[in-house]
Amino acid sequence: MKKYKTLYINLMLVAALALSSSCSDDFLDEKLTTEYNSEYFKTEAGIQALAIGTYYQVFALEFAGEVPLTSRESGTDEFQAGSDSSNYIWNSYASGFGSFITITNANTVVANTNWDNLYVGIGNANQLIASATAIVSTNNAIKKTALGEGYFMRAFNYLRLVSQYGGVPLKLDVSSTAETEFKRATAEQVFTQIISDFTQAYDLLDNAGGSAKITKDAAAHYLAKTYLARASEINDSWNSATKTADLQKVVTLSDEVIARHPLAANFANLWSFTVADGANEKLPEIILAGQFNSSLLNTGSNQQHLYFLSVYDQLPYMQRNVAGGRPFSRLAPTYFAYDVFDKVNDSRVWKSFQTKLNVNKASGKYVNGDLGVMYLLNASTDTRFTNSRNNDIIINPKTGKTIPTVIAAYAADKIGFSADLHRYFASLSKYLDGSRIDLTNTRGSRDIILARSAETYLMAAEAKVRLAKAGSASFSDALPYINAVRNRATFKAGENRAAYVDGLAGWTVSGQNNVPPSYIGENSYYESNNINTPTTDATTLSISTITTLPAEDLAVIAKLGYSSDYDRMLCLILNERTRELCGEFHRWEDLSRTKTLVARAKAYNPEASPNIKDTHVLRPIPQTFLDGITANGVPLTSAEKQAMQNPGY
Coil, helix or strand for 590? Predict the structure, then answer.
């Protein structure tokens, strides 16, 4: 499945859905270059080739660009705009955010991109389902695997659509000509279809193939995710009849998946990437992953390594290098993303963010390999620093030299990481990729994790919290699931708390092209926490009772004004999801479905805070779609378009 891009260009136009935002055939620029036509999909070889291509369209294509950032991370409590303003509008919700998006430059993601891509994938899945159903065959690879994959991928994209837009048009058959007559189904109808499709996939599939393949466990995970979404606050106007049963199914399905997908022993193992198809991409915790590899013959690549980085190469004694990453700097973490962690006892913050870099542009007293940059994730109560930016002031005890750049999150000047339009900050490091062929190349080869069992634990925990609110469980029933994730996050006895690894460790001498590496396998744990004596003692993060929650969670609860057990526990779950899943492209949809997006963005995202409102819990239906469809062969009137649009746009 690593080469599922290979057949994509040649096959997908044959199966592509006629429904696009422009209702024309220009939604994919690639040209059909072989003799393949729809007759090919009546053969077993054609069906299997179509499945391969649809994998790429549904699971991987978007990660070659910025759609995941704009649709699922920007404008939340976790991330704000970085120093590059290409997609600032998706974070700020300013006046240019609507059914048309105000374009800043060629990198700006427009309103219809996500919508179009999702419906193209649905069209491919429709063809796969139709072909695998129609063919006369006794081959399980066709009648079970390919058919189950088709149902799964259609459900996967409809889950994305309903999570972003609410009710959307349901297109369940194959289009042979362009269509322009579409009506929105209700969110309830869309969820019913998603559940039916994921259930079909669950019944048809087995667990062969690991995270590179759609398995029964992947279907169970996403079926649980769908039931949880249907039972969430955004659907409270209609979900009362199904809510309790849905939540019970979340727990049952999650338990099934958890039993076969143990957590990795160390959180860092998930991100310790050195080479494509390496050990970290095959961990049992990973349920489903979008597949990439290092072959230059493939036109698709994972470019998420570009977008979360600080512009380190603009600091003194630093220059761009493969071992430092290519910093497009689209997103910067908010202070919530740092401060929601127990920075003394929770290892995840030190395994999720890059806090040190080495000098790699030697000059004067500094040689390559000296500590060049240090970001301090210190506490808000820390009074050590007058200035946030400390140039050539703080001494590195290992060398006796001053460190060229030290930036503290908290100092008396109250500037922190916000200076220079978020240019310099501790970067999310989950996608960094040092295996690239040179420092200018944007091609990343590491897989993208779509689902892992740590999230499954937290879905079960959330279902228990919701069942407790309904009187069908106790709030404390959620704690074993939460603590399983938190216990993995502790420092273990004998562990070096200053140790650090990310995907930049995969750098090669040839890739560096004679530029010294800036990567260092060390973090700022001790400096940030003002701990002078190293320790290898084990830490604990276990929560024993719902009445005594961690201090960092109590701070969020107080800021958001929560008091009921349900609100406090849901807040804990959402906080835990950040600690575990920060930057893994879940956040906007989590906050939207729980209707906490507005409150959290106002509290923690300074750019979104002035503009975000209840309207923004759903995305606008793209204007290009509304302008392209008809009713009884006639283009929609302005009033009809407005009636089809989400409220407030």
Answer: helix
